[in-house]
Amino acid sequence: MRLLLTDAFFFLTATNCLNEIIMEKKKIFNAMVAILFVTVILPSQVSARRGRGRGRTKSKVQIGLPVTGKYRDPESDQYYNNNNGAKIIMASHFDYEYVLGHKIAFLCTARGNPRPQITWYKDGIEIYSHLYLHVHEWKMEETIKSKLEIDPATQMDAGVYECYADNMYSIDRRSFKTDFSIVFD
């Protein structure tokens, strides 16, 4: 009887040890699979863009259009291609380098029926007039002309500005990238 209890105890202890060894091997195997995934498989699927911020910019003509040039549903096509929709017909150059202390000026002219409203953004945030930044608007029948002036320009004025024209039928927008240069006298 004593021999049977000892054998049973030995058997249970051995089984426990084997289960622990198997569990440890499973943990090691899972860790190895995770390391393999992170070091080999994942980098081949992700293309890193070292040192690049936003990637390629979109052309002025096709901002907001799908790759095919057509929309999936007729409502979207009718909304974005409406003849009365807001369209920016004239805008400043995309890349603008300004001198610190001088004036920055952006122009944006839009047409639509009803006449669109123009809103200005800097780095995705709506901007308002203040002591050094002024927005001027000239309203004609179906056209609006807006001018954004910053005087004097500082380093903090560098960024991406956006002219956003919208009416009840559609929206249109143009972006202007600015950076400063320092002039030594």
TrEMBL record:
It comes from the Eukaryota. InterPro entries: Cell_Adh-Cytoskel_Orgn, Ig-like_dom_sf, Ig-like_fold, Ig_sub2. It holds the Pfam family Ig_3. GO terms for molecular function: axon guidance receptor activity. Keywords: Disulfide bond, Immunoglobulin domain, Signal. This is Immunoglobulin subtype 2 domain-containing protein. Residues 99-170 form the Immunoglobulin subtype domain. GO terms for cellular component: axon; neuronal cell body; plasma membrane. The lineage of its organism: Eukaryota, Metazoa, Ecdysozoa, Arthropoda, Hexapoda. Gene3D superfamilies: Immunoglobulins (2.60.40.10). One of its GO terms (biological process) is homophilic cell adhesion via plasma membrane adhesion molecules. It comes from Bemisia tabaci (Sweetpotato whitefly).
